[in-house]
Specification:
Length: 189
């Protein structure tokens, strides 16, 4: 029984190692610029073993995105508050914290955003994510009293996307703290 548990843990760890190696390479080299061989090498395994855990490079990317989606659902639940001002403030603050703490995630997401028209599966995921966030922002902005919450939600999501892209370009010199303060002042009372 203990051997079976250790073997299962080993497989889970190996799968995670492949996923995080792929994430790092996709974020730094882009999806197109990364091969399965490079992912395997970074994970310290053979290329063939990669296919034991994942069907293809596309499957690897989908699993990374699913991992982030699950993580995001948990995070959103932890940020929730009945007061829409508090919830909105937490969402905005969390966005900036993720940029600071998980720049590789932001790099991957922004690089995928720029390739959205090239891959149908990426486009579908991007639209789904956008609509989810847009609807949430619109609902919160409506509750806090913005007269045209739909327009403001579009502006806010566009600003946040722009921040992520600019952070990728400028890096550590990007004024994250000042930008966060500006957005909070504009949208949270």
């Amino acid at each position: 029984m203990e051997t079976a548990t250790r073997e299962k843990d080993f497989k889970i760890q190996k799968r995670k190692r492949i996923l995080f190696s792929a994430l790092e390479l996709f974020a730094t080299q882009g999806y197109d610029g990364t091969s399965v061989s490079q992912i395997a090498k970074a994970a310290g395994i053979s290329k063939g073993l990669t296919y034991v855990y994942f069907e293809s490079k596309e499957d690897l990317l989908l699993q990374i995105i699913n991992y982030f989606k699950a993580e995001e659902e948990i995070r959103l639940a932890s940020l929730y508050d009945d007061d829409p001002n508090i919830f909105l403030k937490r969402l905005i603050h969390d966005f900036f914290n993720r940029i600071r703490e998980r720049p590789e995630h932001i790099k991957l997401v922004t690089s995928l955003m720029l390739q959205v028209s090239k891959y149908k599966f990426i486009q579908e995921m991007a639209i789904d994510k956008y609509l989810t966030y847009f609807q949430l922002m619109q609902e919160l902005l409506d509750k806090v009293g913005f007269p045209d919450s739909r327009r403001e939600a579009k502006l806010l999501t566009a600003m946040l996307d722009g921040v992520a892209i600019q952070f990728n370009v400028v890096g550590e010199d990007y004024p994250l703290t000042e930008t966060e303060k500006y957005i909070l002042t504009k949208y949270v009372s």
